[in-house]
Amino acid sequence: MGGQVPSVAEAIASDPDDARARIRAGEHTGPTSGLAAGFAQANLVILPADDAMDFMRFCLRNPKPCPLLEVTDTGSPRPTALSRDADLRTDVPRYRVFEDGSMIDEPTDVTRYWRDDLVSFLLGCSFTFEWALAAAGLPLAHQLQGVNVPMYVTNRRCAGAGAFEGSLVVSMRPFAPADVGSAVDISSRFPAMHGGPVHIGDPADLGICDLDAPDFGDPVNITNDAVPVFWACGVTPQAVVIEAKPSLAIFHAPGHMFITDRPHAEFDSEEKRHDRP
Amino acid sequence: MGGQVPSVAEAIASDPDDARARIRAGEHTGPTSGLAAGFAQANLVILPADDAMDFMRFCLRNPKPCPLLEVTDTGSPRPTALSRDADLRTDVPRYRVFEDGSMIDEPTDVTRYWRDDLVSFLLGCSFTFEWALAAAGLPLAHQLQGVNVPMYVTNRRCAGAGAFEGSLVVSMRPFAPADVGSAVDISSRFPAMHGGPVHIGDPADLGICDLDAPDFGDPVNITNDAVPVFWACGVTPQAVVIEAKPSLAIFHAPGHMFITDRPHAEFDSEEKRHDRP
Fold first, then answer.
1. Residues of B in contact with A192 (CB under 8 A)
2. CA dihedral B13, B14, B16, B22 (to 10 degrees)
3. What is the pLDDT of residues A154-165, one digit of tens each?
4. Which among B75, B76, B126, B163 could disulfide-bond with B244, CB atoms 3.0 to 4.6 Å apart, if both were Cys?
5. Are residues A80 and A212 in the same domain?
6. A100: distance to nearest CA of chain B, Å?
7. Alpha helix locations (H) across A62-139?
8. What's the confidence (pLDDT) of residue A110?
9. Nearest chain B residue (CA) to A162
10. pLDDT by residue (tens digit) across A223-262?
11. Contact A93, A10 (CB under 8 A)
């Protein structure tokens, strides 16, 4: 999330391999914002195989909050499509481990929880479209104000799949009216990273009573004429999985993402058009 | 596939509900090309739950040949995201049923093969981008020549998942050099319907020795200056599943697709940008 000023050591780790090596070695246990700048990061959900099929359906039915980047082989901690040599047991700076819907641990390594029946899901992260918005000169209020992006539970229900059902969670970024169109166009180019906004304008339409009281993250100051723009958020699958109370569920800790080897630009649908498959 | 001139009765069935009702009643058992014009059609793969997780992974890892439109709940024949009232046991004009990799039946109804552990996969179909190409005035050789589109097994391997692995199968449509750019741009707007081409030009690059000898479909006459353009093809998942020899697999018969309630235009990523999720 925003507001993390990378240290010199962190800024040096601009290579995904270096960043993951430092994380694996326990040298970096903080948020990943600013690490390996230019490379996509991902949300992580790990579930037993018995729950994986329905969770995969949930993601397919709700691609805006849950854009699937990769699903690993059962038992394998290797997300080979996103990184040649990463290990999902060790390469996230901090995890959250849930049993039956209750958090039991926040370790920096989940090797001791690993089982042969676990399936890992890597989901797109808003850092990529934020990178594109910033590159286009659009100011991101939460970054300028040095806080985490504000997130809200909405009145919109996701399409359910088995035990997985719940409300859509959104993140909010305010923009000057003249910038809203660009924010829509640019973020829409990254469908694998939540894509375009799900709502623009009146928070009440999403059942949000008070923008100053986000359910997750921090409030941001909004200038009088700014328009709130809402994107589907990767917190949605975490909330839905916790609610379903599987016997075991492992997530990245908020803001402590998995760093991939794939540049942000690779997820730009405008750039991908003439690619080979 | 192309080349089917719809009868008056068929042309009247321009509504997906009507078309599916006629198919369900056994009044239409032929190919679906030309039925419910304007609405997307889909490839169908039905597998036991034990094989479904790996096949879903296969699709996610090979989105060009296997763009997932919907995965049903286990045991449910209702593809609710694509149609409000369809039944996958009866609403495809002709099926192919395989046991252990061998075809055992080509029925017009698979109710007697249905089991509570079956999972149905609906995959995007090239009819949608062909509709968009035709709407843009680009001539489709196989349609003009009244034959099925030619399809070829290539030397490119798909990314495997469990027992599912094999070669990419492509369809080929020739275009005048001046039209190739438009064909790329237009088809790329439909990522859920195989998207942009996987190769343009020399067939030898894909290991195709003779364009006049397709592995599936029919050869088309190609004018001297025309450029062959190759798209990932929905035959790929059929070939890969048959090779994996699951205990049971059910497909639509070639060209006998599932007709959805969703207009082609809904799958245009250019049009979808400002949609709600």
1. none
2. 10
3. 999 999 999 999
4. B163
5. no
6. 23
7. 127-135
8. 98
9. B73
10. 889 999 999 999 999 999 999 999 999 999 999 999 999 9
11. no
Count contacts between A and B (CB, < 8 Å).
71
> Which of chain B's residues have a Cβ under 8 Å away from the Cβ of A168?
277
Give the domain range for residue A146: 127-236
Same domain, B250 and B117: yes
As given in the structure block, the two tokens for residue B78 are 């209702």
Phi-psi region of A217 (alpha: psi -120 to 50; beta: other; left: phi over 0): left
CA dist., res. B245 & res. B85, Å (int): 31
A271 band by pLDDT with thresholds 50, 70 and 90: confident
Answer yes or no: do A198 and B277 touch at CB < 8 A: yes
Q: For the domain that residue B185 is a member of, what is the CATH number?
A: 3.30.2040.10
**Any residues with CB less than 8 A from the CB of B210 and at least 6 apart, and which?**
none
A58 and A15 within one domain: yes
Chain segment B129-160, per-residue pLDDT in tens: 999 999 999 999 999 999 999 999 999 999 99
Q: How many domains does chain B have?
A: 2
Q: Is residue B34 assigned to a domain?
A: yes
pLDDT at residue B272 in the model: 60
Q: Are residues B258 and B191 in the same domain?
A: no
B65 neighbors B146 (Cβ within 8 angstroms): no
Statement to judge: residues B117 and B249 lie in one domain:
yes
- Tell me which of B71, B119, B233 to substitute to probe the interface with A (most A C-beta atoms closer than 10 Å): B71
Verdict on whether the full-model pTM lies above 0.95: no
How does the average pLDDT of chain A come out, rounded?
92
User: Residue A56: which CATH number?
Assistant: 3.40.1640.10
Q: Do B121 and B16 sit in the same domain of this protein? A: yes
Number of residues that make up chain B: 277
